Amino acid sequence: MTNDVQVQVLGVGAITKAGFGAAFAGSPPSVIETGVSAALVPDSGDARLKRMKKWSRSSQLACLAVHEALSGQPEPDPVRTAIVIGADYTNLEAILAMDAEAKQYGVNGTNPALFPETVLNVIGGHLSSYFRIAGVNVTISSGSHTGLKALGYAADLLRLGLADRVIVCVVLLLPPPPFGQRTLPCAYERESVAALLLGPAAADAEAGIALRSEEAPEAEQRRPLAATDASEVPLAIVSAVHRIRQEGCGEAVIATLDESGNDVRLTLLPHADGGWR
Questions:
Q1: Relative to the CA of 235, which of 28, 132, 264, 268 has its CA 20 to 30 Å away?
Q2: Within 13 Å and on the Cβ side, how many CA atoms surround 196?
């Protein structure tokens, strides 16, 4: 992520095993992993799923999280709004399902609706159609640094004036059997979805939270803060924003490492006195 970039966090959304919504984003792993399965499953009673019934689990979860991030915000400009998706293994379930059908019914007998879901960037396509967004649409897959890379890409779009709003959605799903975490590299141990609505930070912003990225000062290179895996940085931002808004706490600092092993600090600054601190 580009150093010394500041953006405005306008909306957040999340889904974890602990529950649906940003309020559960910071729940400890012991709570999140409670249950028979570690897999996130959309609530079958959610009326919004009727429009997504042919979508993969990953696309459904992403759409529900983005719904929360956009809640209460003005309808985004279709052309000036970008979508940045972070995903690594979200297409594996569809690939396995298509392979199983091909073995059972033959190549010509597979369900054609499965094919689009086997492509990694299908989530971005579904979101653009569902929310009627025609701006830049990018999917980032960078292993253990997917979350941080997606956030950095979004910040660059805003910094360069290529978008007025950016929806960032990072979908972390565990590799399904027969792959598993021992077969494929996986930096996280729990499934989660984090969604952010970002805009350019401005001194006259009416509300929101500023997110600033910078290298850790040399005096703090010994990492005095608890480190967050780069893949889960967006989820940590959702949790921090919720705490700032609901609990009235001051600024929050998220410590992580970039792909070169450099210390990075992400600082969330609450809006105060008509400007950013």
A1: 132
A2: 35
pLDDT tens-digit readout, 249-274:
677 888 888 888 888 888 887 754 33
Do 117 and 57 contact (CB within 8 A), yes or no? no
What are the tokens at 271?
Answer: 């809006």
The residue with tokens 């930070």 is 201
Sort strands 81-87 and 165-172 into parallel, antiparallel or unpaired: parallel
* Separation of alpha carbons 235 and 24, rounded Å: 10
Instruction: Write the CB contacts of 29 (distance below 8 Å, at least 6 apart in sequence).
Output: 189, 190
DSSP, collapsed to helix, strand or coil, labels residue 245 as helix
- Transcribe 123-171 into DSSP letters: HHHHHHHHTT--S-EEEE--GGGHHHHHHHHHHHHHHTTS-SEEEEEEE
Report how far residue 79's alpha carbon sits from residue 68's, in angstroms, rounded to the nearest whole number: 21
pLDDT at 54 over 90: no
User: What's the whole-model pTM score?
Assistant: 0.86
Name residues whose C-beta falls within 8 Å of residue 52's C-beta, 6 or more positions apart in sequence.
Answer: 59, 60, 63, 126, 130
Burial class (CB in 10 A: 0-12, 13-18, 19+), 200: middle
d(CA 213, CA 223): 16
* Residue 19 structure tokens: 């529950």
The amino acid present at 264, given as its one-letter code, is V
| Beta strand ranges found along the chain (DSSP E) | 5-16, 19-20, 81-87, 137-140, 165-172, 192-200, 209-215, 252-257, 263-270
